Structures are given as structure tokens and as C-alpha cells.
């Protein structure tokens, strides 16, 4: 079908909850995608940070095909090998103790919020269910994770939101001000993604971890976007020198198939007992086999290269000398680019997409989340499109 035919059918039969670019993608390889009209696009978006090993990586495709032909689903009423192998790998490489699998980032965050509330309930009883989150954060689109999200633009229409969230600025004074006897946890992204690619200050994060330890609040880290190598370590917390009590993940974990969940430390591994928490599709064998392939591809060497690639791209962007772009920020291949005052980052992003570079926005900036396996050649092609489109 042509782009025009697809758009017309979409508008006839699909809920219009998305503002889509006027592009229909058909297939791809690595960080290069092709539209239904055969046009080439360089992928600096990864389907919003999901395509961690690019499109159609041969090892990933083989793992998915093999598992699809063996066993697609059995539910969590039975054991199956893929999710168990995945849990072992995630724990071994992160230093966490145990994993829970669901399907999305929001579901991972709902899980860690429930974990903190149950941990506190068992130890201290009722009335200690509040979770502190940060201003400019983003934690998901369910009614509870919207409430957790520290941006007023998300707090509309869908009232009543879930109770028990308080927002603070990323300073210890502000967190202490938000604190009360009712707090059980703090939930943070270490690099605020959707809010505008703002890395938290290391000193603040370490002081926050200490405050959590002092008050027996759980330190919950939302690694839905920063996890799985995106920032140059398997999990971003490993670069901040802190040990969270629980870490949520999703986006890049299964390289394009739906999977989310969370990891817990030793202290929290027995908080949930059978029947306390569940997800029908959680630990789905195909998604889990895909995730094992992602972790194979993203070995320590590949993850080290993420920092080098990120630096190469940031240097390349800053060296373009186009006046509409400003400074870059971020960690690894999670890159925010400031845009000139008076210009709209959304309009620039739409322009880049049409020029052949799939790009994102976040808060006030342009955001680039290329596949972690992107090649130098693909990065150079992307920079060339950027230069031609914005000069
Ligand atoms: C994308 C994102 C979410 C939501 O993930 P979904 O899979 O869309 O539910 C939550 N937290 C962060 C930090 C994210 O970037």
C-alpha cells in the first residue's frame, strides 16, 4: 500500500491519539530504514529507544524465529527456559538479586511502586504509601504513573489520579521538604528522558541514596529509557555509584518486542509472595529469547563503544556549525540538542524526519536515541542529513 492509502485507512479505523509524521516505514537493516516508497531514512530514534540492536540484527532475528517456532507463550503457571535465562543474565550483569517481567515501562514502574508500598506496609503498617518523584520526570501513561510523573501538562482530564505522589526538585533540600512520615520511596530517572534529557547530578544522586538508607525509603530507579546500554553502562545506576533497591526497565530490553519489568536487590527479593503481583504476558518466551539475544549482542565491549559513539555524534553535531542548534547534553547514546531561541524543536524535528533523519524531541530539545549498534558510516550519513537539512 502507498503512504496515502495507509494514512487514509489509519484515519478511518485507528484512534487518533498520536501525532504521526507523514511517513510510513516498511522495513530496514541496522540503523537504516526504508519507507513504503523505497526512500531511505537514517534512524536516530530507534522507535523511541527500543531498537537497541537496530532493525533485523541477524542474531536477534534468528533467536526470535527459533523461539516462535518452539513455544510462543505458556503463562506464568509454568516454568520455561527463556525468561529464566534472561533473569540470570540481568542479575549477573547488574548486581541485582531477582527479576520480574511484564510488558511495558509503565507496568515496570507500577510494579516498583507496589513493591515499595508493600515493603513499607509489612514493616511499618498503614499510612506510609507516598512516593516522592522529581519535577520534569516521566514515568508512564497509566493513571498511576501519570500521577507519578512530575509534569503538570500530564495532569489533566483523567481525574481522579492515584493518590500518594509528591514532586520535588533534584536537590536534597527540596526532597527533604517534600518528605513526611508517610513516605516509603523515591522514584527517579537518572537522566530525565522525556523531560528534556537532563542528567541528574552525581552528588545529588549519592546524597539521595544516603537519605533513602537513613529513612528506610526504597530507592527506585526508572531505567525504562536509560537502561540496557543506552547511557554507556548496562544500567545507568552503575555509572552513578549507587545501589538501588529496585530498577524498572523496558524500551530497549527486547530489541523491538514488548517487554518491561523490574529488578530488585536482596533486601526486596521476598517482598512479593505468590499472588501479590502478576502479568499474563510477563516473561513471554519470544520476548525473553529476543532479550537474551540483545544481551548477547550488547556484551561489555559493545556497551563500552556506546560512550565513544555518543561522543563522536555530539562532537559531530557541535562541529556542524549550523546556527539553529546549540549545545548537546546527555550520556552515551542518549543525546539532547538545544535549539536556538525562538525556534520550535518540534518543527525542526518534523523537518529532519522529512529530510531523511528519524529524530525525536524531549522537553525543549531535539533528542537522538540511535540504535546502540549504529555504525560510523550510518552516523556520518545522519550528520550529513542534519547539516544539509538545517544549513
Ligand atoms: C517511555 C518511558 C516510560 C513508559 O514506558 P511505556 O513502555 O510507554 O509504558 C516510563 N518511564 C520512562 C523513563 C520512559 O522513558
Tally of individual helices: 13
Give unreliable regions as ranges. Answer: none
Structural class: alpha/beta
Please report which band the strand proportion falls in: under 5%, 5-15%, 15-25%, 25-35%, 35-45% or over 45%.
15-25%
Shape: globular
- Report the major sheet: 7 strands, mixed
Ligand species = pyridoxal-5'-phosphate
Multimer state:
single chain
What is the H/E order? Answer: HEEEHHHEHEHEHEEEHEHEEHHEEHEEEH
Query: Over all CA atoms, what is the radius of gyration?
Result: 21 Å
Total count of strands: 17
Calculate the mean pLDDT score and round it.
Answer: 98
Q: How many angstroms does the end-to-end distance come to?
A: 34 Å
Helicity, in percent? 25-40%
Q: How are strands sequenced across the largest beta sheet?
A: 4-12-11-10-7-5-6
Task: Provide tags for this entry.
391 residues, seven-stranded mixed beta sheet, four-stranded mixed beta sheet, 17 strands, 38% helix, 19% strand, globular, binds pyridoxal-5'-phosphate
Amino acid at each position: 500500500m502507498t503512504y496515502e492509502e495507509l494514512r487514509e485507512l489509519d484515519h478511518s479505523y485507528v484512534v487518533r491519539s498520536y501525532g504521526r509524521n507523514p511517513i510510513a516505514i516498511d522495513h530496514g537493516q541496522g540503523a537504516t530504514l526504508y519507507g513504503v516508497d523505497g526512500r531511505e531514512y537514517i534512524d536516530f530514534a530507534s522507535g523511541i529507544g527500543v531498537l537497541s540492536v537496530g532493525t533485523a540484527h541477524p542474531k536477534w532475528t534468528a533467536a526470535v524465529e527459533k523461539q516462535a517456532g518452539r513455544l510462543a507463550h505458556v503463562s506464568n503457571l509454568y516454568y520455561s527456559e527463556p525468561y529464566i535465562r534472561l533473569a540470570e543474565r540481568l542479575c549477573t550483569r547488574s548486581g541485582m538479586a531477582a527479576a520480574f517481567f511484564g510488558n511495558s515501562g509503565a507496568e515496570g514502574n507500577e510494579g516498583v511502586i507496589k513493591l515499595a508500598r508493600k515493603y513499607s506496609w509489612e514493616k511499618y503498617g498503614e499510612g506510609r504509601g507516598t512516593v516522592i518523584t522529581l519535577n520534569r520526570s516521566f514515568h508512564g501513561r497509566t493513571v498511576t504513573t501519570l500521577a507519578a510523573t512530575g509534569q503538570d501538562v500530564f495532569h489533566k482530564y483523567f481525574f481522579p489520579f492515584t493518590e500518594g505522589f509528591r514532586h520535588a526538585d533534584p536537590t536534597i533540600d527540596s526532597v527533604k521538604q517534600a518528605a513526611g512520615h508517610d513516605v516509603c520511596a523515591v522514584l527517579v530517572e537518572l537522566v530525565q528522558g522525556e523531560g528534556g534529557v537532563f542528567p541528574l547530578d552525581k552528588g545529588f544522586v549519592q546524597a539521595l541514596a544516603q537519605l533513602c538508607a537513613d529513612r528506610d525509603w526504597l530507592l527506585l530507579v526508572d531505567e525504562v529509557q536509560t537502561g540496557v546500554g543506552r547511557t554507556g553502562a548496562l544500567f545507568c545506576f552503575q555509572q552513578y555509584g549507587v545501589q538501588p533497591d529496585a530498577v524498572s526497565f523496558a524500551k530497549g530490553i527486547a530489541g523491538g518486542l514488548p517487554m518491561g519489568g523490574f529488578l530488585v536487590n536482596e533486601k526486596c527479593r521476598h517482598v512479593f509472595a505468590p499472588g501479590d503481583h502478576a502479568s499474563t504476558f510477563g516473561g513471554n518466551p519470544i520476548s525473553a529469547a529476543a532479550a537474551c539475544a540483545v544481551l548477547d549482542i550488547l556484551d561489555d565491549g559493545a556497551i563500552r563503544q556506546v560512550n565513544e559513539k555518543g561522543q563522536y555524534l555530539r562532537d559531530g553535531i557541535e562541529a556542524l556549525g549550523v546556527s539553529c542548534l546549540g549545545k548537546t547534553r546527555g550520556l552515551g547514546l542518549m543525546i539532547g540538542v538545544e535549539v536556538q531561541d525562538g525556534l520550535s524543536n518540534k518543527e525542526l524535528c518534523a523537518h529532519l524526519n522529512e529530510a531523511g533523519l528519524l529524530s525525536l524531541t524531549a522537553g525543549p530539545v531535539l533528542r537522538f536515541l540511535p540504535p546502540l549498534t549504529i555504525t560510523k558510516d550510518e552516523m556520518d550519513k545522519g550528520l550529513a542529513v542534519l547539516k544539509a537539512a538545517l544549513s
